[in-house]
């Protein structure tokens, strides 16, 4: 037997063995899509106006600080609406100086000017509103993707839909409520001082300074599991946010047996700010606030230089883990709300798998019988090649971590048809060569050679189409594109390389070849 034939046999053996290795056990190696294994389908709406309002709040605070640094007295610098800041000066004589400071905030335009009374408004330009709106949605998509990746969902679909919607499909989720809580949590972490000059009683009675607000801490009784809310009077000014976090890890709470806490560590900037805040406010209480809820408000006993803190809250290990995930992934730029929710049950997925496998099996049996009846021994060669084609296809999907969806099953059925068509193309070329009187070996050689260019043309064309579908498609379209692409690549190998190997083994090695069973 020629040396190159042994090499070709070895290649096929390696491919077949590798495919079996990747596919064992098949139920654990192939990722199933949302439509096959169940999961949740969500459409979220991003409240981008809130992101613009938050941006305006930060600018108002920065503008007020700049005015105070230049000795310009103000009676009010506060957001008025989502994208406007109302400014009232103490003395109208400082009008020109205030406008000089206002010009530094170029994204905001002056409106409703009343120089005599020292009043004007800064309004965000329409172009900046549109840019912040788009930025909020794009940041929300990336933040949710980071959270889902850390949550451990394989092959999630997270894409933007329209101007302010996000489509999320999470296959295989066992606890939809936990996943929704993880995705929907804004995770805005803030460090603010308590307003210790205002009592809680006065605040609840409505005697609350404009610079402070009432926030609550949730406390759950261990025995009764009853929840009560404890009010805190908290200054509105945020000293530090979770944007400067470098690390968030789950730890056992040493002060509460059975509970867990989240240890956080700031980056260099956050560490410097945290050190300054704690140094300047020794003896005061610093509230750790997440999404408007007070988690703890410890007393600052001394400067904390290391940039480390802990968030306690009687967490279970899962709650602490999810909190650490959202802190590491960062805060959503704006709240999101669920506009559409569908849960696909595993039973529906099992029905889809059964029906899909039935369709593939039925089509395969028909093709097998037809090829065997019409092309006899050559048809049997094509059937064996078809089996290897399906084996390599599924193994490639398992090896690359691709997800099998219901449209993906349709893609497999389509590639089976194309693989058979490729063999038919080769066989018909061989028949034509036999009809013109060529000997069997020459007919086989010429048949494969003549069909090769046509096979390459058709496969490359469809491969390019599948690549485009994958690049621009989403969800089921991608699943179809993946199975189509991988199936065609496997078809090229089996139809051109493996089928020719079988022909060479059966026919070419004979000393006297009189006819071909085709």
Describe this structure in words.
The protein is an alpha+beta fold. It has 14 helices and 19 strands. The chain has helices spanning 3-23, 26-29, 34-37, 48-69, 95-102, 126-151, 176-184, 200-204, 268-280, 317-329, 346-399, 406-435, 440-472, 476-508, and strands at 31-32, 39-46, 74-79, 84-89, 108-114, 119-124, 157-161, 165-171, 189-193, 212-220, 227-235, 240-241, 245-252, 260-266, 286-290, 293-296, 308-315, 336-344, 403-404. A four-stranded antiparallel beta sheet has the order 7-8-2-18. A four-stranded antiparallel beta sheet has the order 3-4-6-5. Strands 12-9-15-16 form a four-stranded antiparallel beta sheet. A hairpin with a 6-residue loop joins strand 10 (212-220) and strand 11 (227-235). Helix 11 crosses helix 12 (406-435) and helix 13 packs antiparallel against helix 14 (476-508). It is elongated. It starts with a helix and ends in a 10-residue tail after the last helix.
Task: Give me a quick take on this structure.
The chain contains 14 helices and 19 strands. The chain has 518 residues and is of the alpha+beta class. The strands form 6 sheets. A 4-stranded antiparallel beta sheet has the order 7-8-2-18. Strands 3-4-6-5 form a 4-stranded antiparallel beta sheet.
């Amino acid at each position: 037997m020629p040396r190159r034939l042994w090499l070709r046999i070895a290649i096929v053996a390696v491919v077949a063995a590798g495919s079996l290795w990747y596919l064992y056990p098949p139920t654990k190696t192939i990722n199933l899509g949302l439509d096959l294994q169940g999961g949740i389908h969500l459409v979220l709406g991003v409240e981008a106006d809130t992101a613009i309002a938050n941006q305006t709040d930060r600018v108002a605070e920065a503008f007020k600080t700049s005015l105070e640094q230049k000795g310009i007295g103000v009676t009010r610098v506060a957001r008025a609406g989502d994208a406007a800041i109302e400014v009232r000066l103490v003395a109208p004589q400082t009008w020109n100086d205030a406008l000089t400071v206002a010009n530094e905030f170029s994204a905001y335009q002056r409106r409703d000017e009343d120089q005599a009374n020292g009043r004007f408004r800064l309004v965000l330009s329409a172009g900046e509103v549109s840019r912040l709106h788009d930025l909020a949605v794009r940041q929300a998509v990336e933040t949710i993707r980071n959270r889902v990746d850390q949550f451990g969902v394989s092959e999630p679909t997270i894409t933007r839909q329209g101007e302010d919607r996000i489509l999320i499909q999470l296959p295989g989720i066992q606890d939809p409520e936990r996943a929704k809580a993880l995705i929907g949590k804004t995770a805005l972490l803030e460090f603010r001082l308590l307003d210790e000059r205002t009592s809680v009683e006065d605040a609840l009675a409505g005697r609350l300074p404009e610079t402070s607000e009432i926030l609550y801490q949730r406390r759950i009784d261990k025995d009764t599991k009853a929840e009560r809310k404890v009010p805190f009077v908290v200054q509105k000014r945020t000293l530090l946010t979770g944007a400067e976090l470098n690390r968030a890890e789950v730890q056992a709470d040493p002060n509460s047996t059975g509970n867990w806490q989240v240890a956080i560590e700031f980056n260099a900037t956050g560490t410097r700010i945290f050190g300054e805040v704690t140094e300047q406010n020794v003896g005061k209480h610093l509230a750790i606030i997440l999404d408007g809820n007070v988690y703890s408000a410890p007393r600052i006993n001394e400067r904390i230089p290391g940039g480390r803190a802990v968030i306690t809250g009687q967490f279970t290990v899962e709650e602490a883990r999810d909190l650490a995930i959202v802190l590491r992934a960062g805060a959503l730029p704006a709240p999101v709300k669920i506009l559409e929710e569908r849960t696909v049950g595993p039973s529906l997925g099992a029905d889809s798998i059964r029906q899909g496998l039935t369709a593939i099996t039925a089509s395969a049996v028909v093709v097998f019988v037809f090829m065997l009846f019409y092309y006899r021994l050559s048809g049997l060669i094509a059937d064996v090649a078809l089996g290897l084609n399906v084996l390599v296809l599924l193994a490639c999907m398992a090896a690359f971590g691709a997800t099998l969806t219901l449209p993906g099953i349709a893609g497999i059925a389509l590639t089976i048809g194309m693989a058979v068509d490729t063999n038919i193309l080769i066989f018909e070329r061989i028949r034509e060569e036999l009809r013109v009187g060529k000997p069997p070996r020459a007919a086989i050689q010429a048949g494969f050679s003549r069909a090769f260019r046509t096979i390459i043309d058709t496969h490359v064309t469809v491969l390019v189409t599948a690549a485009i579908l994958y690049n621009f498609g989403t969800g089921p379209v991608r699943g179809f594109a993946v199975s189509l692409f991988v199936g065609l690549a496997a078809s090229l190998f089996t139809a051109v390389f493996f089928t020719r190997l079988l022909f060479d083994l059966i026919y070419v090695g004979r000393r006297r070849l009189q006819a071909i069973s085709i």
